Amino acid sequence: QQQVKQSPQSLIVQKGGISIINCAYENTAFDYFPWYQQFPGKGPALLIAIRPDVSEKKEGRFTISFNKSAKQFSLHIMDSQPGDSATYFCAASIVDSSYKLIFGSGTRLLVRP
Amino acid sequence: DTAVSQTPKYLVTQMGNDKSIKCEQNLGHDTMYWYKQDSKKFLKIMFSYNNKELIINETVPNRFSPKSPDKAHLNLHINSLELGDSAVYFCASSSIAGSEQFFGPGTRLTVL
């Protein structure tokens, strides 16, 4: 019940295309769903996050769509750029009580020029 | 100024040795974490500390011993290193448990 399942494992997109990464969770107590971006040799960095009281959050070219009933959330990267090539992790936690993030298995995104 | 820093960046050592990784955060956060990232990039929590107190020990072998001398520091000491300990270890911190976590640059540990 603590798992967060992420797909696909890898993704290749042409420059200007839309990248979509999906995650699913089981624990309905989760109330914080961040996406992290990790470049080779660097630590993960928060990209965007959502709480379950909204169904969508947009920041620039990055959008999280959240479906509470289906227990799924996804990251959409619009107008994907070669500089977006990185590994993306979804995660989930319970704010104020769970002292950890449960991470998905990661998606390696390659954006071709 | 680096928010979360770790030293060393790389650590290469022989099996059976003891080594330490240091972590410092200058964000004023109360909660600090250690995560392990394996060769398949999977990130897993090892320990969580809140106000210098151990909160989570996620079934990590006793050879791993975290120490928090103050709220800004969380060090990781590893005894009797094994081949399977080879991984990248990340320190992180957050102001509120379960909320946005800021990660350090990682320490790549290679056990030969």
Question: What does it look like?
Answer:
Chain A is mainly β and 113 residues long. Helices cover 0% and strands 52% of the residues of chain A. In chain B, the strands form 2 sheets. In chain B, strands 2, 4, 5, 6, 9, 10 and 11 form a 7-stranded mixed β-sheet that branches. Classes of the chains: A mainly beta (113), B mainly beta (112). The A-B interface holds A 32, 34, 36, 38, 41-46, 49, 87, 89, 93-103, 105-106, 108 and B 4, 31, 33, 40-45, 48, 50, 55-56, 58, 90, 92, 96-106.
Layout of secondary structure:
The complex is a heterodimer of chains A (113) and B (112).
Chain A: E1 4-7, E2 10-14, E3 19-25, E4 33-38, E5 45-50, E6 56-59, E7 62-67, E8 72-77, E9 86-92, E10 102-103, E11 107-112
Parallel strand pairs in A: 2-11
Antiparallel strand pairs in A: 1-3, 3-8, 4-5, 4-9, 6-7, 7-8, 9-10, 9-11
Chain B: E1 4-7, E2 10-13, E3 19-25, E4 31-37, E5 43-50, E6 53-57, E7 64-70, E8 73-78, E9 87-94, E10 102-103, E11 107-111
Parallel strand pairs in B: 2-11
Antiparallel strand pairs in B: 1-3, 3-8, 4-5, 4-9, 5-6, 7-8, 9-10, 9-11
